[in-house]
Amino acid sequence: MSRIACALGGATALLVLATAARAQTAAPSEAGQTRNPAAPIAQSYPAAAAGDGATANGFNLSRWAEDWSGYRDAKKRDDPLDRLKFLPLDGDGDVYLTLSGEFRLRVNHTTNPNLRDARAQRQDINRIVAGADLHVGPHLRAFAEVAHGGISGVELGAPAATLRNDLVVQQAFVEGDVDVAGIALGARYGRQEFTDGPNLLVSQRDNNTIRYTLNGLRLWARGRTVRADLFDLKPTAYGDLGTEDDVSDPARRFSGVTLGFVVPRDWFGGSKLYVDPFFWRRRNMVGAWGGRIGPATRYYVGTRVWGDAGPLTIDWTVNHQYGTYIAQRIDAWQVFAAQTLRLGKAATAPRIGFHADYASGGGGYGDGKLRDAYAPFGNNIYYSYALFLTPSNLVALAPNVTVSPLRQVRVTAEYQFTWRDSVTDAVYRANGQPFTGTQNVRARKVADVARLQAVWTLSPRVSVTGRYEHLAAGPALTEAGFKSSDFLAGWVSFRF
Fold this sequence. Notes:
mainly beta, 50% strand
């Protein structure tokens, strides 16, 4: 850990020096163009690229990343719920409370669950979330969020604690910050969502009823065009008996640094592009591959390039993974390349694109190098809504198109061709577990996956979503006894 600490400390020092040197020539802030995260500092690094996710119509998946301070002015409030976003607790409004919440009702229907010939599964799911964000002056805040997850239906098995949980403290942290010579320095400690990296590697996993959170410390230094975020976190191990059995997982730890650089805005004829190198470490004392369980330490060295260049939107990531798993050396790669082209100037114009992805495989059932790539806690529905695929031993190519037949309706269709990198290794599910027996099949084709999603945004607070997916199992699955599957889901979400 000492070498990691030295490396992270050196990266921060270099960042501060570089930012100070460039402060006089840096590009102007984008703070006025998009909502800033709710951190009370005057943050000049572009808010949308600061590692807290995107904010649209004032709302963010991570509710603490929303800034409702503008509602100090009563004239800007459109309805009674807006009053909940700015509740002054002193005469000047320097101390104020922001309340947030979500209600989500959802139904999932899956044929051939686990890709076995079996009765269809139906999940009737509800999510209730309530949060409070307390701002004490310009440099201190505390955020807390509780959640409830309920589930009923048919062929449920034993629902995980992320699906059925009477009450959890989903997030709870304190945060402080200060502005030093134009550089925003901050720290956050406690239970929190962490999304500072490619979505396929780190995500809140909003598909779950109870979101993915971690516990520990996050530090940052942000200038106008350069930033660094350091973190040392342990995942939350959720129980299902109430708030007292939700603890920091003692067997797993995730730490590292993510840097960020703003590409000059006049490049490529005008752009909003960012380059985010990262160096992470994930330790897991109960790692599992090939039926074995043992300690694993995996390092991630990579870079993400993402953003907009005119009508083109890109999100490209490459990372190399190394380390050890029991007695095996880890030597794995992941390459993710997603791009879409907007066919018109309007925000609702049609988009066409594709994503091409590679996640190395091999060694999961051998004693040589472990070449199976692994995502720490990425978006687990990206390759399969029913959670049948994951970026380990995977090659995928998926053209897609998005249209808006109505102003508030967005429809996306995609067809994904899926293979595996190594035919001597298994096909892996989203939870990292293998489809038993696929390691003994020598076919490369895994599946074709057709999917359709429609989102109807009735208002910034209310949306209705429908999803359909058909996974046509290929010989890598069928020769091991697995079947094709259909997945259908629909839900309504209300946020305030």
